[in-house]
């Protein structure tokens, strides 16, 4: 017979060993996941941050840059408007380096883009495309980027990655240099048997098909722990741009069903005319799904809004049209014309600032007030504002469409 003491000791040993091994291979939140967040880029276009704030979102991670020269065209407006609505913000860079020198160059570029800003959350490296680089070099590139960003910004850097790459690609040196923001679209609260150098994460991206009021289409949704916040949220040090310019990177874009040049131009912060010129397009209304376009992303989306009025100040850029601006912000050309007293909608000037109002879009208050002038007719007014006589008559309770008088105030939707 076995000695009872020996059996008891062995039992304790096996229980301890099983528990210990399980703890090694478990991946869990560092603390409570209690902060709702989103991460965004130019793909979301214009965002109404007052609605985002009211929906319960607390943290917004904003794409700042990619590669050696690409600055997200919506970076400035996303930062200003998120801050204006008292949201906590963080910044991320999409790393494309294939060697250490490039990694350090991209770190300098990232630091230059976010210079002078006041992030609330830790800075992020998004490194998920490796372009055939070997595992050892991938880790050297990641470390070089992280260390240089820390040196230039004096802020902590975390790593955004998925389950496959934290198990198979990144090593302990990378894990020790930055906490983890995990992309995992399953049950993330009890991840067992995960062979990773990270044992905890401070953020989880749990879907890329989230819906949030104020954002058109899908957006990444996240949950964060309190460790996501920086201890120092003061202004970042100034870093000189190593390239001397922004947004000079040419990308290839595959036309999707429902795309228009106007929609694509707004998405990438460029103009219809520039896309047409680069790609030799003669008819700007004729593009087809599957067509590959070269796009030089060399512009920035400008604008700010206030919490209470939703007022936006938009600076006209070369190549802009009122139609493109209206599509970008989801408002009508007629309203832009009315709000800014524009006599000729086809004649606008680069550098001129337009006032736009965002909050009224889609509501019953989205109308202009028109004062009838001598010689006016409903037909003439309808043509001017691209509506119908019947619509104006119905909206204003006019029984006789031939009877209007100078000084009469009409609401035109």
Q: Could you walk me through the main structural features you see in this protein, from its secondary elements to its overall organization?
A:
This protein has 13 helices and 17 strands. 31% of the residues lie in helices and 20% in strands. 35% of the residues are buried. The radius of gyration is 27 Å and the shape is elongated. The chain has three domains: 21-228, Glycosidases (TIM Barrel), CATH 3.20.20; 250-296, LysM domain (Membrane-bound Lytic Murein Transglycosylase D, Chain A, Roll); 367-413, LysM domain (Membrane-bound Lytic Murein Transglycosylase D, Chain A), CATH 3.10.350. The strands form five sheets. An eight-stranded mixed beta barrel has the order 2-3-5-6-7-8-10-11. Strands 1-9 form a two-stranded parallel ribbon. Strands 12-13 form a two-stranded antiparallel sheet. It has helices spanning 4-24, 49-54, 75-84, 100-113, 135-153, 163-168, 172-177, 261-268, 272-279, 322-329, 333-339, 378-384, 389-396; strands spanning 28-29, 35-40, 59-66, 70-71, 88-94, 123-126, 157-162, 180-183, 200-201, 203-210, 219-224, 250-254, 292-296, 311-315, 353-357, 368-371, 409-412. With 413 residues, it is of the alpha/beta class. α4 packs parallel to α5 and α8 (261-268) crosses α10 (322-329).
Regarding CATH, which class of the largest domain?
Alpha Beta
Record field, number of beta strands: 17
Major beta sheet, strand line-up: 2-3-5-6-7-8-10-11
The rounded distance between the terminal residues' Cα atoms is 93 Å
Give the overall average pLDDT: 83
| SSE run | HEEHEEHEHEHEHHEEEEEHHEEHHEEHHE
Reported by name, the CATH topology of the largest domain is TIM Barrel
Low-confidence stretches: 9-23, 304-309, 359-366
Strand content: 15-25%
The proportion of residues forming helix, as a percent range, comes to 25-40%
Shape: elongated
So, CATH architecture of the largest domain? Answer: Alpha-Beta Barrel
CATH 4th-level superfamily of the largest domain = Glycosidases
Count of separate structural domains: 3
Radius of gyration: 27 Å
Largest sheet entry: 8 strands, mixed, barrel
* Count, helices: 13
Structural class by SSE content: alpha/beta
């Amino acid at each position: 017979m076995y000695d009872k003491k020996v059996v008891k000791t062995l039992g304790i040993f096996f229980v301890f060993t099983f528990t210990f091994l399980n703890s090694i291979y478990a991946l869990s939140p560092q603390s409570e996941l209690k902060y709702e967040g989103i991460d965004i880029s130019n793909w979301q276009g214009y965002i109404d941050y007052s609605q985002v704030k009211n929906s319960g979102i607390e943290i917004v991670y904003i794409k700042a840059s990619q590669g050696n020269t690409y600055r997200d065209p919506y970076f400035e407006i996303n930062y200003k408007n998120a801050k204006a609505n008292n949201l906590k913000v963080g910044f991320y860079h999409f790393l494309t380096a294939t060697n250490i020198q490039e990694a350090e160059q991209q770190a300098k570029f990232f630091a230059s883009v976010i210079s002078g800003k006041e992030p609330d959350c830790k800075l992020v490296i998004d490194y998920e495309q490796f372009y055939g680089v070997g595992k050892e070099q991938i880790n050297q590139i990641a470390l070089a980027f992280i260390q240089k960003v820390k040196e230039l910004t004096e802020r902590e850097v975390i790593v955004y990655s998925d389950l496959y790459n934290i198990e198979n690609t990144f090593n302990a040196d990378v894990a020790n240099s930055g906490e983890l923001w995990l992309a995992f679209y399953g049950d993330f609260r009890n991840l067992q048997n995960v062979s990773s150098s990270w044992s905890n994460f401070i953020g989880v991206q749990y879907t890329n098909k989230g819906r949030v009021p104020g954002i058109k289409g899908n957006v990444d949704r996240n949950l964060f722990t309190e460790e996501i916040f920086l201890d120092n949220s003061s202004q970042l040090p100034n870093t000189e741009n190593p390239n001397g310019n922004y947004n000079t990177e040419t990308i290839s874009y595959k036309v999707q069903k429902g795309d228009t040049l106007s929609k694509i131009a707004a998405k990438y912060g460029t103009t219809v005319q520039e896309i047409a010129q680069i790609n030799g397009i003669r008819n700007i209304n004729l593009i087809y799904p599957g067509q590959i376009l070269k796009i030089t992303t060399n512009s920035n989306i400008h604008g700010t809004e206030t919490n209470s009025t939703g007022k936006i100040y938009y600076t006209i850029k070369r190549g802009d049209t009122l139609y493109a601006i209206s599509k970008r912000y989801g408002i009508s050309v007629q309203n832009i014309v009315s709000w800014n007293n524009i006599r000729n909608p086809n004649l606008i000037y680069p550098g001129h600032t337009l006032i736009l109002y965002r909050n009224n879009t889609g509501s019953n208050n989205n109308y202009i007030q028109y004062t009838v002038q001598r010689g006016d007719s409903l037909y003439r007014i309808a043509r001017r504002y691209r509506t119908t006589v019947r619509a104006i008559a119905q909206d204003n309770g006019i029984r006789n469409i031939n009877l209007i008088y100078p000084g009469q105030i009409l609401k035109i939707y």
